[in-house]
Structure to design on (216 residues):
């Protein structure tokens, strides 16, 4: 298992200029390797929570720790934290359009200096797990929405991060395709067991996670 425990204690977060805090002493503990759905009405703070855990946003009070260590301060340390510990995926997969699917997965590893044969084998395994074993040489523009979403999920795991932060990764898909992509998401999670926060507005999908946390 690559997941590590996530602990959020007494989080206080108010956006500059806003009268009301998004979080006013929010706490959450997530076990290593858990798949935790984050639900709640629009504007309650789901994306803000993910952004704080990813070190993409700042907060005024409270602590967020991963594997016992705090999310670091400072832009450089946070960038390194994201590279080493966090896999992010969004509603739009944001694949690099001029590179093939396989190259999109290879890129983060090459940036880390890993162009090894093992890395290629690993990429092949990940692609197979999300049902893209035969589509690695395609460009993102040649994929369906569901296939692109699956590639985005796999790319977010290629560095084997401790945390997998997913912000409505099936949000722009039709229900049947969302269901299919969620099946692959479950396969990836079962294989690697990253500690996962999955923001979703889909109660059916949330119900199939190991745990649901409702904000608000
Ligand atoms: N950069 C920002 N500056 C000021 N306020 C913000 C900013 N980003 C978000 N907010 C506010 O913070 C609150 C939480 O926003 P957030 O995007 O986290 O909600 P959410 O639960 O993810 O919503 P949705 O389900 O619509 O995506 C909202 O009231 C929003 O208007």
């Amino acid at each position: 298992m690559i997941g590590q425990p996530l602990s959020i204690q007494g989080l206080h977060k108010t956006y500059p200029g806003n009268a009301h805090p998004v979080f006013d002493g929010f706490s959450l503990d997530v076990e290593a390797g858990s798949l935790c759905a984050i639900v709640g009405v629009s504007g309650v703070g789901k994306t803000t929570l993910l952004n704080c855990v990813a070190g993409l946003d700042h907060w005024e009070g409270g602590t967020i720790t991963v594997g016992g260590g705090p999310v670091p301060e400072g832009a450089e340390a946070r960038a390194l934290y994201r590279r080493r510990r966090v896999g992010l995926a969004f509603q739009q997969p944001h694949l690099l359009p001029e590179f093939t699917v396989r190259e999109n997965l290879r890129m983060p590893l090459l940036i880390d200096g890993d162009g090894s044969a093992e890395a290629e084998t690993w990429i092949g395994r990940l692609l197979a797990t999300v049902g893209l074993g035969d589509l690695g040489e395609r460009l993102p523009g040649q994929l369906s929405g569901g296939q692109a979403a699956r590639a985005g999920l796999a790319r977010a795991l290629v560095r084997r991060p401790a945390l997998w932060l997913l912000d409505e990764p099936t949000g722009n898909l039709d229900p049947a395709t969302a269901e299919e992509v969620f099946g692959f998401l479950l396969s990836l999670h079962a294989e690697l067991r990253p500690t996962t926060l999955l923001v979703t507005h889909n109660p059916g999908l949330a119900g199939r996670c190991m745990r649901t946390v409702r904000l608000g």
